[in-house]
Amino acid sequence: MFSEEQDELRRTVRAFLRETSPETEVRRLIASASGYEPAVWTRMSGELGLHGLAVPAEYGGSGFGVLETGIALEEMGRALLCAPYLSTCVLAARAVLASEDAGAARELLPGIACGVTIATVALPPPGAVTVRRSDGRWLLNGTARLVVEGGLADLILVVGAAEGVYAVSGDAGGLSRTPLSTLDPTRRLASLGFADTPAHPLGRAGDGPRIRSAVLDHAAMALAAESVGGMERVMELAVEHAGTRVQFGRPIGAFQAVKHACADMYVDVESARAAAHRALWSAAENASSASAAASLAKAYCTDAYIRVTTEAIQVLGGIGVTWEHPAHLYFRRAKSSQLLFGDSDHHRDRLVGHL
């Protein structure tokens, strides 16, 4: 399905994350103030060029696309990478490109591609953020909740305010940030408040709904790809345990119930992989079914991630429910991914609408 170059990208990213995002580092970053390691963030851009995978070369990126980004996201999900990659290189980059605003792209995308800018997208519901014009400036008022890396971003793209898209600097006046306590400590969310906060419009007036849909499609595909990597890794941990944990004189993997549990996990992982890759290929080919494929992948993959982590914890037994074992971190990521950017019921309804 993938080319040799794409397979090599996967091997390179996996080796890099094995070095820079082991479990010990994930736990350290969970407890840190920023939630990510700036040195690793810089290396991701400089050594691997991951930040600019989906950014056109004319804006400082490598000009690849959604397939390569999806490969990187699978490996990041496998490693539970703590970094603002989803918010910056997927959501924000897609919002800028979808705006079809060449001036904004020239101004904003090079900073994203080279790793200097940490960005995010706020998707407030209708009416939650209002826009007014005063003394030649656009001013935002209102609140946007559940903003991925909202407490960290240098650039915030508010999508949907007054049916438009507005760029807000991280140091803009009237901007307030409230970190949110969530189930998943590996991905930080914040509530953003705007009180006559200066902003700059992107794209054409009224383009907000179209751009919002494009961002949500890419968010769905990204979370599906992350989920595949995460569930594959937690399945491996459970299978390894089943092969080494001895009960009644033989490995527990020899017992039929455990065999069935491992087989069920494998079916879920491979089915999710097919759904996620289908969505990536549909987007890469600009297929008319891309939006439907994104919703299908999001709904199936995140539900499967929950099933696999739950089954893995059962196979792991007592150690699986301890803080010391990483299984609970994958379960927390799975539940967060299931709910973020629309839960499974929302995406199934959306899929029916497309059909």
Task: Give a quick summary of the entry.
The chain has 355 residues and is α+β, with helices and mostly antiparallel strands. The protein contains eleven helices and nine strands.
CATH topology of the largest domain: Butyryl-CoA Dehydrogenase, subunit A, domain 3
The major beta sheet can be summarized as: 7 strands, mixed
Order of helices and strands: HHHHHHEEEEEEEHEEHHHH
Unreliably modeled segments: none
Distance between the termini: 26 Å
Strand content: 15-25%
What is the total tally of β strands?
9
Percent range for helical residues? 40-55%
Q: How many helices? A: 11
**Backbone CA Rg:** 21 Å
Number of domains: 3
Shape: globular
By secondary-structure content and strand pairing, the structural class works out as: alpha+beta
List the helices and strands and how they pair.
Elements: H1 4-20, H2 23-30, H3 38-46, H4 66-79, H5 85-98, H6 102-113, E1 119-122, E2 129-134, E3 137-148, E4 155-159, E5 165-169, E6 175-179, E7 189-202, H7 208-244, E8 246-247, E9 250-251, H8 256-284, H9 290-316, H10 327-339, H11 344-354
Please tell me about this protein's structure:
This protein is an alpha+beta fold. The chain folds into three domains: 4-113, Butyryl-Coa Dehydrogenase, subunit A, domain 1; 119-206, Butyryl-CoA Dehydrogenase, subunit A, domain 2 (Beta Barrel), CATH 2.40.110; 209-354, Butyryl-CoA Dehydrogenase, subunit A, domain 3, CATH 1.20.140.10. Helix content is 54%, strand content 15%. It has eleven helices and nine strands. The strands form two sheets. Strands 1, 2, 3, 4, 5, 6 and 7 form a seven-stranded mixed β-sheet that branches. A two-stranded antiparallel ribbon has the order 8-9. A hairpin with a 2-residue loop joins strand 2 (129-134) and strand 3. Helix 1 (4-20) packs parallel to helix 4 and helix 5 packs antiparallel against helix 6. The longest helix has 37 residues, at 208-244. The mean pLDDT is 95.
